[in-house]
Amino acid sequence: MDNSESSERSTIAIVGTGLIGCSMAEGLRDISSEIVGVDNNTGHLQEALYRGWIDRSMSLEKAAGYADIIIISVPVDASIQLLPRILELMAPRATVIDAGSIKGAVCRITRDHSKRKQFVAAHPMAGLAVSGPEASDSGIFRNKKVIICEKEKSSEAALRKAYGIFDKLGMDIVYMDPDLHDRCVARVSHLPQVLAYSLAALSAGEDKQNESMLNIASTGYESATRLASSPADVWIPVFHHNRANLSESLDEMISSLSGLRDMIKEGGWKSLENQIEKANKSRELFMSVYKQG
Fold first, then answer.
1. What is the spatial distance between Cα 207 and Cα 203, in angstroms, rounded to a whole number?
2. Number of other residues whose CB lies within 10 A of the CB of residue 224
3. How far apart are CA 145 and CA 123, in angstroms?
4. Tens digit of pLDDT for each residue in 138-164?
5. Rounded Cα–Cα distance for residues 218 and 263 (Å)
6. Which of 98, 73, 101 is closest to 190 using CA atoms?
7. What is the pLDDT of residues 4-63, one digit of tens each?
8. Angle between helix 232-241 and 243-265 (nearest 10)
9. How many CB atoms lie within 10 A of CB 157?
10. Nearest to 48 by CA among 29, 69, 33, 63
11. How far is CA 5 from CA 119, 149, 162, 167, 259, in A?
């Protein structure tokens, strides 16, 4: 990765001072001359200032025209609204990087913009099942993938700045078509989130059986429902903007679960064993690739 830009300290604006924004700010402190925060949530801004993730807060209008690099880390619906405005306000030599988890809609709204070359469409594949600046941790990015879409539409100068950012965070770049990206994340990111919500909700009542289930639940339930701690305001916009791909993945998941149910109900143990072995091999392959990161 070319990190030639990293030797030149930049003024960085973080639009959205939640978990991802502040984790990036924390990790980029060494290559920045100043980090400014933009957020409608004054509590987040105050917490980010208190913890030293940002040096000061600014309005969006002022920050967009002031910073060398603008990183957008807000829910995807807000990002889609803000991005064209930021492109209009930004300085001629500045770069804007979007860190959201949906790329198709973002790339479509910027496709014909006169400043498209100053924009890098990215998705750091990292996060935690908690939110807010108090949970920030720059280590969540290390050895993880970051996806860049429509590389050919970004200028070399903008890409160099983005490479410097992701190099500093310890991320490995993958280039991907935005629509393929959205299909892939529907399966490996958004579907697991829905499944965690669904499983946790099965035990949500206050009846005696649910109380007993939660009383004896242990590591298996904890690991399977970890993502259910994620707040709705982060995920509902993602589900909304990727609903076609997510619905297709859910249909496939429902079909798979129905097949497993029938195997168990009918005593199809050999078929079930084959399915489990297939899952074991898939998990092993994933872990071997994941650990190489």
1. 9
2. 15
3. 9
4. 999 999 999 999 999 999 999 999 999
5. 26
6. 101
7. 444 468 999 999 999 999 999 999 999 999 999 999 999 999 999 999 999 999 999 999
8. 100
9. 14
10. 29
11. 16, 20, 9, 10, 52
